């Protein structure tokens, strides 16, 4: 991709914004090198990795990048066999911990949606927990080695502590004994040796070694002779401590050296993941989406926004090219937004081709281009003696030499800067030449001749930027299919120009030209309405299709889960039955053993127990056989209020309506009302429970409800699991008669809190909900008042 287009379309500014969302300078270097990929496969893969990271952040919160650093220099030194300092070892250990944590972060249940691209990247991670733990156990700060790093270091520091305690006692007694000779009654340290401040005139009164003197010379810092040996011992211990620390650091550095390839690979993967998740966080900030990418030159971007303009100010525009037409000519007044529009088109293309999600709506389509050429802005050069026209033409010559069918070409004010007649003719010739090559072209112009060229040429379409004559301001909306109308007369009238001058001016224009302008105005109004309706219809259709796919996916997932649970239940039942049979055989063996030993008096009683147990087993087997074969008695008709078994959920439900024309019945299943097929309902055999049984059941229910806690802790759960657990808890709390409950979700990224708040807002048992007060846990909890 040519550097000039990346510069004039301001792709580098997008990369600078992206750098704000990564943690390491290594990831920033990857962003600096980022440019559009040169094949369609890479574009799709890098877009997919960004979207996967985006989904992971939403579902699981922030990725485990806490405390990671750019340790390329430290790894390079370790690879050469050098001994690393504690700070470098700690940072490498943090990289190893982060890489290991990432394999857990992207893990998911078998039935859940996977993260194919990110999982492939993380396949290269080699957990080095032993080295990681060894470093963290030995080093507790950037310049601090733990006492537990080795037994020798522990004993040396213990001995050093004891020696220091002894020498402090000794020197305190010396200070007291020589207080009349001292400048102050205290001791100090000079060169790691304990000394006392002696007045210069009394230096002969305190025998010892002079280590220093004050700036005035009035005080000498003397090491008393009685402390020399103790100070020497402390110095020796400190030297041994230093040597042991160097040995520990050397040993840890060798561990890195012997596993340098794995360490380098883990670090490179973490920096790449930092880059990928930076793209995802930037996409979240832009409210961006993953576009569909094709190699057919088709662009259809819905509600595209310029990524460098404030979201509250930018105007979103639909843009399409490559189906009915391959060239688009945009006209309109100055400051109307033409340049911003074409920059948005070009920049969104560059972002998508570089693996970045685009600021647009779902189902937007971009095309894969090998080159994006752009001639935008006034680049006149005094040094090169180039005028505006010459500067543009130099760039256009380069485009003509290199553009082909796999190129997107963007022109701003094509043919400007010279005689209007010659400039328009030249612009038409350039556009026609590139159109015949199969290029995709977007050009802005002021020339009316280009409007006519677009109207009469197949594959070329007019467009304009809207201008509000009432407010005399541009709306910055792009209108495809309608050439821009000159509003000079209307604007002049509203600014106060006399009507007779405007009428005289109209008289100087041919009637055909005036009719053409009026036709443009009519077309513009009709096109706005038609385009708006068509787009809204298409968006609704896309949303319905997406909702249907999501519903079908959830239904299949529920069906598979139900079948799995039923299979597991049947396996468990067979297992219980098998164990019971084994137990019976053991009992029978014991009985026979007792009989053989002469315990005939208990034979009759044991025989009765044996027959009774066999009877129970036969009953269990018969019930299981009936369940497996018949699955209950089918119902021909049902009446409201009737209790039946819903086979698809294996749950008792209450019938609420008669059978309708579709053969469906409305039933109450817990708090839900659903429509089911009559054929999925079965008759429940057996009488209703007795009063005693109902009383016992009610007693058990009350006992269960009395044990419902007033709070629930969701920390550590993902959004889906937390919503399910909270829903079940609210049912129990409601049945127990609790008036207010506390839901603990933690602060984190706010994703879990948002999911819980949304669920509480529509839950049938919840009256109101609020964030907890400071004393209740603040934003880490939500308090719900039940109905």
UniProtKB/TrEMBL annotation:
Q: Which SUPFAM superfamilies match?
A: DNA repair protein MutS, domain III (SSF48334), P-loop containing nucleoside triphosphate hydrolases (SSF52540), SMR domain-like (SSF160443)
Q: Give one Pfam hit by family name.
A: MSSS
- GO terms assigned for molecular function: ATP binding; ATP hydrolysis activity; ATP-dependent DNA damage sensor activity; endonuclease activity; mismatched DNA binding; ribosomal large subunit binding; rRNA binding
Signal peptide positions are none
Mind listing the GO biological process terms from this record? mismatch repair; negative regulation of DNA recombination; rescue of stalled ribosome
What top-level branch of life does the organism fall under?
Bacteria
Q: What family is this protein classified in?
A: Belongs to the DNA mismatch repair MutS family. MutS2 subfamily.
This chain belongs to which protein, by name? Answer: Endonuclease MutS2
Q: Which gene encodes it?
A: mutS2
